[in-house]
Amino acid sequence: MRVRALFLPLLLATAACSVNPQGSPERGEPGTSAAQQDLAARISEIETASGGRLGLALHSPDKGLVYAYRGDERFAMCSTFKLALAAMTLDTPGLREKRLHFGAGDILSYAPYAKERASSGWMSGLEAAHHAVTLSDNTAANLLLAEVGGPDGFTRWLRSMGDETTRLDRNEPALNENAPGDPRDTTTPTAHADLVGALLWGDRLAPADRALLEEWLVETTTGMNRLRAGLPGEWRAGDKTGTCGTGVQGEVNDIAMFETPDGSRYILAAYLDRADGSASDAEARLAEAARAIADWLQQMGA
């Protein structure tokens, strides 16, 4: 997805962080504030402490890309793709009303809603989209993928949205492999933050459907210990998580939508790959990153 030009002084740090993986503004960069330098240092410290690779992108509907750290590097999407899949469901005529039938063999190990619906053997497209977001139900996601042309059909829809970066190549659970250097089932923080911003605030979806997606994000509870844990409690927020790989190939992700008290809206996409420690430790690192971003925005007047 094409990134908007960064003309405002507030945004100058973004360009620096995009070319410098450590997120530090280039020496002598015009308009680089002490607050921006402090943010870059904090994010770098969080990444170092994690033992892994951290990617962040902050998107605003008014300014486009506001901040990025490893923003153009590829990371496995894990289940964060399900938000866009839900949006595609709402964008596909007739799919939300359609009955999606499934049997015992279709129910994956993590499929809480599909297990609840096992006795009836079907769920509607709208129910599948809802629970693919709020519960990250893997069976629901696979049922929807089967209706939209599989991973290839999903990727073509992303291209129609203007996202030339994100790609889905496999279904659940294979897409969670996260093998080193494998470009399959990946995105970049910048591309995905821009995509989610377009889905929630662009004109591709009807206003009622954009509101529904936002409602689902707020309803989601799987990420309460991730980005949302680092945002001020009075900020309205929602998110879509993603977790994939095991051991040294593990990754813990989150994409949060939030609104500050002054009415400014943002998307924060965060991907933490191959961090040391437990999944809970990785979640805490994402919360720290969100807290750093929130502190920076508050210093800028949010």
Automatic annotation (TrEMBL):
<feature type="coiled-coil region">
    <location>
        <begin position="272"/>
        <end position="299"/>
    </location>
</feature>
<dbReference type="InterPro" id="IPR023650">
    <property type="entry name" value="Beta-lactam_class-A_AS"/>
</dbReference>
<dbReference type="Pfam" id="PF13354">
    <property type="entry name" value="Beta-lactamase2"/>
</dbReference>
<dbReference type="GO" id="GO:0008800">
    <property type="term" value="F:beta-lactamase activity"/>
</dbReference>
<feature type="signal peptide">
    <location>
        <begin position="1"/>
        <end position="18"/>
    </location>
</feature>
<dbReference type="InterPro" id="IPR045155">
    <property type="entry name" value="Beta-lactam_cat"/>
</dbReference>
<feature type="domain" description="Beta-lactamase class A catalytic">
    <location>
        <begin position="58"/>
        <end position="271"/>
    </location>
</feature>
<keyword id="KW-0732">Signal</keyword>
<dbReference type="InterPro" id="IPR012338">
    <property type="entry name" value="Beta-lactam/transpept-like"/>
</dbReference>
<keyword id="KW-0046">Antibiotic resistance</keyword>
<keyword id="KW-0175">Coiled coil</keyword>
<keyword id="KW-0378">Hydrolase</keyword>
<comment type="similarity">
    <text>Belongs to the class-A beta-lactamase family.</text>
</comment>
<dbReference type="InterPro" id="IPR000871">
    <property type="entry name" value="Beta-lactam_class-A"/>
</dbReference>
<feature type="region of interest" description="Disordered">
    <location>
        <begin position="165"/>
        <end position="189"/>
    </location>
</feature>
<protein>
    <recommendedName>
        <fullName>Beta-lactamase</fullName>
        <ecNumber>3.5.2.6</ecNumber>
    </recommendedName>
</protein>
